[in-house]
Model the fold of this input.
Amino acid sequence: MGRYEIRFSGSGGQGLILAGVIFAEAAAIYEGINAVQSQSYGPEARGGASKSEVIISDETINYPKATNIDLLLALTQESCNKYYKDLKEGGILLVDEDFVTEIPEGNYRVIKLPIIRAAQEKVGKAFVANIVAIGAITAIVGKVSYESVEKAVLSRVPKGTEELNKLALQIGYEMAKEKVTR
Amino acid sequence: MARQVKLFQGNEACAYGALYAGCSFFAGYPITPSTEVAEVMAKELPKRGGAFMQMEDEIASMAAIIGASLAGAKSMTATSGPGFSLKQENIGFAAIAEVPCVVVNVMRGGPSTGVPTGPGQSDIMQCRWGTHGDHPIITITPAYVQEIFSETVRAFNLAEKYRNPVIIAFDEIVGHMRERIEIPEPGELEVIDRKKPDVPPEEYFPYDSSKGDIPPMANFFEGYRYHVTGLNHDRTGFPINACELVHIEEERLLRKIYANRDDIVKNDEYMLDDAEVAVFAYGACGRSAREAVDMARKEGIKIGLLRPLTMWPFPDREVEALAERVKAIIVPELSLGQIILEVERCSKGKCRIDGIFRVDGEPISPFQILDKVKEVL
Amino acid sequence: MAYDYSRYLRNDKFPHIWCPGCTYGIVLKAIIRAIDKAGLKQDDTAIVSGIGCASRLPGYVDFNTLHTTHGRAIAFATGIKMVKPDKNVLVITGDGDATAIGGNHFIHACRRNIDITVVVFNNYIYGMTGGQYSPTTPTGAVATTMPYGNVDPQFNILELAKGAGATFIARGTAYHAAGIDNLVVEAIKHKGLSVVEIINACPTTYGRRNKFKSPTDMLLWMKDHFLPVTAFEKLPPEKTAGKLPMGILYREEKPEYTEMYYSMVKRVQEGGK
Done:
């Protein structure tokens, strides 16, 4: 497998940096392939546009930043507008269908999922939206196993929230799986 | 037992590398983008019986690690940009008083407050010349998370071996990115401790260079009562006014490092043997350059990389030798052109030198480097 | 028999750099007597200083001595004390060193209540650099950088220390030299941050410019302007105007910093949180 670039984007406070860390950890530690996670951030801890990037590859990853994105997750319209141009031709734009209503034109595949709503309604906690997103990304990317991702999630989430997060991961995975296989 | 595998930030790897080297005292002050180093030390040092202190300011942090080192601890501080400026006076104190210590500078952008959350490499000359006066300094410039761990161990080793402050400088990109790291087992990496005196207290002189340029170091409270000062001093440690002795002692301080440059200088040389163009790069730019070399080689373009892991003392001979056999050396930097000046100086006009400079908070990409290579070929 | 100072001195380092008429020698002797009386072992004691005339003191005494950068002595001393909490750490500093350039370290050491004894030599002036006004220079006094009379308000070093959390404060003067011994002994014995202010005379850069005809006049000024705290407190305000109390002015038992830190370390190592 060559270089595969993922960018998690949304608003500060949505847990996207943690999402990137978890996915990278799943790949690098539990799956045993190379992964690099990086981020850029502003001074604010909440709000603003936030992005976190994960690159996975069988080869050594020297350049740590995403420039030719295979998969872009956008949880807000602002982040979608800001970053869609970095998608490569034939890449995938994964959006939260409730918050990203205007899909920019481009030569890529769009997958719309109710990520935040699913976290709210099916898990009962909006703050697990990042884990729902990881579930969806796991299904879409297909290069890191569900088991590896689940292990990484459980190693990073606070004690007592394991079941909640397992459920969130599963919901995200199944939602996306349906779209990917259809 | 298998080595522990972790996904660590560069900053985290730096802290764990310090602990591996035996660091038992850390003093710091919160500053972006280096704070994670302090946070790991605050968490881990108490577990190991060591001490972490968040001091009232950057100056105090630098002072405290020097005091701690004199009391026998391996010590470290970490900072960025403005904090590095504030530490400079006491870095000079550590240099003239020959107190081993490690200073981490996770480089951000801009002068003054600049771009606190963005990367930069514009402190690299400050690492060499930040404090006033002639002084010896060692600066280590790792680029990969695994390398930050092992180079931090090396930084402590060099500090202890040469009785000198050692700076570890890497940019925010490398400090904050996460990468797979295998934690070496105890004993796997060499750990060096300062050489203690082998003479009784009455025969001990703290700056005695009769047996070599690096005097053995007694810690405070070990029965060797001596004096330490930032004034120019003689072998006894007491201030001198005899100017010729000042000159002799200052030369020894520089010689201590430069005469041992082969032991201190370390480079990653990649595909240089048949290279027509070389890239001289470190930190995040070094990573991009390595990628650019791979990309170029796939296109049949012969380029190579000289990536210094020790920036100070500067790899002058290596650069000169390179300049003799390549058409050009490309120097990508996250500054408006600093280390290129050293490359120009050491290449002595023997080849073309071109820079790629960027200070907009974004890294220099492999494509930018490759484009430049094609331009000069 | 006269007291023998020589075992605590680096006798080959004399003559000292202090001017004729300077009172630092008087205070140096008192500090040696106090260290002796407190029973501190030379090998187990570090004396740390910053920059200035007072900060040259460590060079003359036979301990583990550290002459640091301007204002930073307490920060260096903090590093030593944290690594070796069972050892004795004293700081010798001046008014400018402690309360101007080193003011931040001074107040934060007080706040932490770390077990360091800080002796501040207050001579109301930057002496080594030739007589510039310091934070303790009296308003109206003449200094090379206040040639028309000082307009800066004065710091009261001990009120500053107390306000910042120091748990032992005391004041002595070079004139009342015999009284210094006990102040320093008690300061050393005190577990926590102790500050002893010693009023000193700089005839060369302060006295000459401020109508003191001789060094003796400066000592007589101390005699007239400092009263034992017990006497001071009994007098009505009109009788103490322009005067200051001396002696142990405040003492309080509070948890000491290294003890608190290492009890946390113990708790962590035993598996607590």
Q: What stands out?
A: Chain B has two domains: 4-183, 269-376. Chain B touches chain A through 24 residues (CB under 8 Å).
